[in-house]
Amino acid sequence: MSENSVSARIVGRLGKAASYLFLMIVAISAFEVLMRYAAGQPTVWVHEVSIMLAATCFVIGGPYVHRSRRHITISYLFEKMSAPLQRWARLLSSLLTLIFLVFLTYATSLQGWQAVQHGEMTGTALNWPIPAYLKSLFALCAVVMTVQTAVHVIEDAQRIRNRDT
Asked: Which residue from 49, 51, 63, 135 could staple onto 115, CB 3.0 to 4.6 Å apart?
């Protein structure tokens, strides 16, 4: 997927914006420590918000890394292959990833829809709708990754046809 495409730029901006959520986690955790030990009044919301923010980062991180195929790979065997075989291996990998993501998108969409429909909440003292939010976000990111992978399949097939590396 081209780094200059509109969708890649949008995903890139969202990923970079989401990275600042980790800074927010540090800030509210520091606030919790101050409130607990300096003021003697611990908060009840910091833990839930921290987990929600971290989960948001991790879920958005999937499409962010997948857009440019910079995810973690073990490439020892791949690097030992000839260039034509590498192109075929990349296509096979993209096809298998696409199949997986189609099923993941289906499953997460069902779960996200049910969570929103039933107003799924945390069940804690605050009882926030964090599960409905995260399940919906996960489904949305699965859709984005499925589209990204479909583009990767097309690009990989074109590389085989054109014998580009």
From this structure: 135
Distances (CA, A) of 133 to 45, 75, 111, 117, 136: 16, 36, 11, 12, 5
46 inside domain: yes
Q: Assess if residue 76 is contained within a domain.
A: yes
Answer whether 102's CB lies under 8 Å from 123's CB.
no
pLDDT in tens, 87-126: 999 999 999 999 999 999 999 999 999 999 999 999 998 8
Give the separation between CA 2 and CA 69, rounded to whole angstroms: 11
Q: What is the span of the domain harbouring residue 108?
A: 6-162
- Residue 141 within any structural domain of the chain: yes
pTM exceeds cut of 0.90: no
* DSSP assignment string, 46-76: HHHHHHHHHHHHHHHHHHHHHTTT-S----H
Q: Within a domain: residue 1?
A: no
Whether 165 has a pLDDT exceeding 60, the answer reads no
